[in-house]
Write a structure and sequence with these properties.
Elements lengths: L13 H17 L2 H12 L6 E3 L9 H14 L5 E3 L11 H9 L7 H9 L15 E5 L2 E5 L17 H16 L3 E5 L18 H10 L4 E4 L6 E6 L4 E6 L15 E9 L3 E12 L4 E14 L2
Helix pairs in contact: 3-4
The structure holds fe (ii) ion.
């Protein structure tokens, strides 16, 4: 989220100095407040029931950045209208995830119905960090949104993530239960969920384990960020297709290797037989200083089983 406010001297530990350099040398030239402002105006004109925000919100997770990002989140949408999962920049240092939970917990809290389902599969809600509240679960009619946390502090020059064995265990139980109860399952994670979707230094460390969960229990859609690229990857689980949907940044201008900002509208229509799902992409067009619809992709039909 541009521009970056100054951290305090006490916050300038080694990794944050590297992060500041990276911002000054490259990221500052890509992420622009003018693009983010146009994004906000554009998305507010669309008829959207719920916003799914797959992180990163900040760069080096200084207190000043997080307070500024909190004000932005609150002005953008109330917590029951937007769900968020942490990215590696949000969890930049070992203590950052505690601040993420402190400032943005409301955007990662299960709804009452979701909490009942978690309880039914034996998941006790807690504020334990870093994995305690995850996955969280929000229910919209027969559509379930499952948010997981892959944001963990990485060593210098790395941007890895991890779910951890206990979170993966809870995720497996939740996905299996939701399938049994006939929900359309949308999972959200910051890092690309499968092996070889990004170089190892930027990857989810336990992506092979997550792939096994997704090919066994499945989720109909998996939304992710991190790569700042629009991409749809199709795998099969034992019930049918799982689509992994990556999206570009919301604040970027185009570079030689990454696209300009965009966002996806995912339309899930339920009928008696199942769900018809379509994706509309709205992309930032620099010459017009505006977001425009550039792609309509039918994602498929999922039958009720
Ligand atoms: Fe990231």
């Amino acid at each position: 989220m541009p521009p970056m406010p100054k951290p305090t001297w006490l916050e300038l530990t080694g990794i944050r100095i590297l992060g500041l350099s990276s911002w000054a040398i490259s990221r500052k030239k890509i992420h622009k407040l003018r693009v983010l402002s146009v994004f906000e105006k554009d998305i507010k004109t669309q008829d959207i029931d719920h916003y799914a925000f797959s992180g990163d919100l900040v760069n080096i997770a200084s207190r000043a950045e997080m307070r500024r990002a909190t004000a932005w989140m609150k002005a953008f949408a109330p917590a029951d209208k937007m769900s968020y999962v942490p990215g590696n920049h949000d969890a930049y240092t070992e203590d950052s995830i505690a601040n993420v939970l402190h400032y943005w917990q409301d955007y990662m809290t299960s709804c009452d119905q979701g909490a009942e389902i978690l309880s039914a599969v034996g998941i006790k809600l807690s504020r334990e960090v870093p994995y305690g509240p995850f996955p969280y679960l929000r229910i919209f009619g027969r559509v379930a949104l499952v948010g997981v946390n892959s944001g963990v502090a990485s060593p210098p020059f790395m941007a890895t993530g991890e779910l951890g064995a206990s979170q993966r265990g809870r995720l497996t139980r939740v996905l299996a239960h939701l399938k049994k109860e006939g929900y359309f399952r949308v999972m959200m994670i910051h890092h690309p969920p499968l092996p070889r979707m990004t170089p190892n230094v930027r990857a989810l460390k336990d992506c092979a384990d997550l792939r096994d969960i997704l090919t066994e229990e499945g989720a109909e859609l998996v939304l992710y960020g991190h790569n700042h690229k629009n991409k749809i990857t199709n795998i099969n689980n034992k019930y049918g297709p799982s689509l992994m949907i990556g999206v570009a940044s919301a604040s970027a201008v185009a570079t030689s290797h990454k696209p300009a900002a965009s966002y996806n509208q995912i339309l899930i229509d339920q009928s008696k037989k199942g769900w018809q799902v379509n994706l509309l992409k709205r992309e930032y067009i620099d010459a017009h200083n505006a977001f425009e619809e550039t792609e309509v992709t039918p994602l498929g039909f999922w039958h009720l089983t």
